[in-house]
Amino acid sequence: MYAKDRVALTPPMGWNSWDCYGPAVNEEQLLANAEYMEKHLKSYGWKYVVCDIQWSEPRAGQEGWDYIPFAPLTLDEYGRQIPAENRFPSSAGGKGFKPIADKIHDMGLLFGIHIMRGVPRLAVHRQLPVLGTDGITCDRIAHPNSVCKWNSDMYGVDYRKPGAQEYYDSIFALYASWGVDFVKVDDIANLEAYPQNPYGAEKEIEMIRHAIDKSGRDMVLSLSPGPAVIEKAWHMRKFANMWRMTGDFWDNWKSLKAMFERCEVWQRQVSPGCWPDCDMLPFGHISITTDGKGHWTYFTRDEQRTVMTLWCIFRSPLIMGGEMRDNDQWTLDLLTNEEVLRVLNHTSGGEQIYRTDEKAAWKSVDEDGSVYAALFNIGDEEAEVSVTFEELELSGKKKLRDLWQKADLGDAEEKISAVIPPHGAMLYKLS
Q: Most buried in the list 70, 213, 270, 397, measured by CB within 10 Å?
């Protein structure tokens, strides 16, 4: 049994720095969001605090959201990235992320990091040694024809080369020593630079899986970016815990409407420890690094409720993307509706009942036998959306409860229906 089978038995819930801070998050921002989670979200099941891309880059964010080409990453003597001290001062003296991880663990939370697939170009060009080998250097394990389309930091690792597995073993041993609980690996679920072979990094996924297991520490393995390759679902299920079904998901209706098709395609791949990932929740205050100010999510409140309803009944991981210290009460309430979160954590068999260009319906079944029905108006005008008991595989009378309003609606029989605003959703429990 792989160590992956001990973690993420329900969809991971947490926060990731990308949507608000892009490549530029620092120690103060990371820990402050962890403190917010401890105070406001932990009791509802939120627990992962994830530092996203470029944490080893001292100048990250100085050019806004853009990556600095061939950036001078901070490395140790074995070509492994370590936190940039100007952004993460507690890492000084070779401590790495351990001081931050310790503080997050003391809050009763879990700590995660983002990495890019491969070995840093800088380590290759400097011919730094690979820890655990007899004189093999990073240039001898690099795959110079395997690069990322949108970030110049890394070369792929050639699994055929002696020292390749040892390099991955060495970085995950380092992460284990820091106390890392979650690793988001990028440029790996879909190699955008190689559209003829989008899943061409499958051997690196296997090396990473073996390195995590060898490290002796349980870590959730999340693969990005999407769209993941459905034909390779069997492989992702075997070696990973999460994988992105889509490219970066942002706060616009076109991206949200497209997610209904993604969820339809991937619904049969959802199971404990294996979570097709709809991507982060771009709620609240986001995109701060673009101009130092950012913006409040462009999603309407109805659209945000649609996001949460679809993510929960499909059972996607929930990873908040906004600067949580700036949350208003409405955003906090959206994230802490315990009845809606029960749909995420205590159901099975989530499936689409039907979908047209304007309407959709989903169902799932609680472990206590109750049935959940989600109705979506994905059109641009107010509309009545309904689902029959036959479609829900129900009969007789059932007690109907509106989960977003936390209100009992009396008995229902034969069908349920609601007039829903454009881009809105309703979520019901029938028991």
A: 270
Which tens digit of pLDDT belongs to each residue from 137-168? 999 999 999 999 999 999 999 999 999 999 99
pTM, to two decimals: 0.97
Query: Measured between alpha carbons, how far is residue 281 from residues 19, 211, 311, 320, 340 in Å?
Result: 8, 30, 9, 5, 15
Angle at 55 between CA 319 and CA 206, to 5 degrees: 70
φ, ψ of residue 157 to 5 degrees: the values are -100, 130
- E-assigned strands of 117-157? 119-120, 142-147, 154-157
405 CB contacts (<8 Å, ≥6 apart)?
none
What sign does the dihedral 192-198-199-204 (CA atoms) show?
negative
Helix axis angle, 27-40 to 98-106, nearest 10°: 10
Q: What is the pLDDT of residues 91-137, one digit of tens each?
A: 999 999 999 999 999 999 999 999 999 999 999 999 999 999 999 99
DSSP for 271-286, please give it: BTTBEEE---B--SEE
